[in-house]
Amino acid sequence: MTVTRPARLTGGALAAVLALVPFVWILCDLAALGSPEDLFRSWAGHRFRPGPARAATTLLDPLLCLAAAGTALAALRSRHAAAALAATGAVTLAVRLPGLWAHGTGPLVTALAETALGAGLLLTALVGRRPPAGPGEPVPTRPRPAPAAAAGVLLAVAAVVLLTGEVDRVTGLDLRLAVDRFTGGRSALGPALGVPPGWLAAVLVALHLTAAVSAFTTARHTRPLGLLAGGLLLGTGLAELTRLARLHLGDDIRYVTAPEPDLAALATALYCALAGAAVLALLAGRGAPDAAPAPRPAAATPPPPYPRPPGW
User: Residue ranges per domain, the chain?
Assistant: First the structure.
């Protein structure tokens, strides 16, 4: 399926605005904190001393900004951007839904704007699709079977690892804290634009499983969906690795008793980072060309009539 030119222009404009929203918030955080280093430390989970300046964004915001910018470029350059528009719109809509009941005017307005833009991308991808005009029109290539299968295995294992870790965390909490972990209640403190950790884990598990199934079936939409899943997997893995490094090696934190190294969390974060990078490398190459259609047999000449008419 391809996308009509009006749908491409509309999707590109919506994706560009969607990339602009978190970019403006990141600029506001830079102005409030004073330096990119402090912002990076905030994204890495560093707990600042009490003060008026706090970052509103998380590492998810620059990742979504990059994904939306890439989708905008894909929509303007290619007629095969339906999968990229749908994937970016669905993920944005899913991660911003908890912001609709967040506290504060700024996060609520941002959630309303991004959910509307995400729904617009989904609608544009669905309404603007059309079949190829003819047999000679190019169609999106399928990923090669071996790299696609490897990426599918990595994404499926990542989904299982994230799901297992989230279940383990939730089972150790009481009911109110467990619900707040998914809904973003007052007990789940974090940045203004932060997504509740349980909700984010559920979205990532669903994304990774969907991308894995798509990779196993070598569907034509595997590449944009897998690249989005791999990018988020790489970003979340690196963020967790940085947080654990600051927790155990940072020289700006003092403990009465140093915490024991969380080997399970370290192994999970390392796997997510490496698997995300591997998925990006596996799916970034050229796809497999479609097999050439079998030549049609020449039409057989009908036998002459019998008996032959006069003058045949």
Answer: 1-131, 141-251+261-286
Buried b (16+ CB within 10 A) or exposed e, 251-262: eeeeeeeeeeee
Which residues are bridge partners to 3 per DSSP? 129
Q: What is the 3-state secondary structure (H, E, C) of the chain?
A: CEECHHHHHHHHHHHHHHHHHHHHHHHHHHHHHCCHHHHHHHHCCCCCCCCCCCCCCCCHHHHHHHHHHHHHHHHHHCCCCHHHHHHHHHHHHHHHHHHHHCCCHHHHHHHHHHHHHHHHHHHHHHHCEECCCCCCCCCCCECCHHHHHHHHHHHHHHHHHHHHHHHHHHHCCCHHHHHHHHHCCCCCCCCCCCCCHHHHHHHHHHHHHHHHHHHHCCCCCHHHHHHHHHHHHHHHHHHHHHHHHHHHHCCCCCCCCCCCCCHHHHHHHHHHHHHHHHHHHHHCCCCECCCCCCCCCCCCCCCCCCCCCCCC
Q: What is the pTM of this model?
A: 0.85
User: pLDDT tens for residues 164-222?
Assistant: 989 988 888 888 888 888 887 665 567 888 899 899 999 999 999 999 999 999 998 89
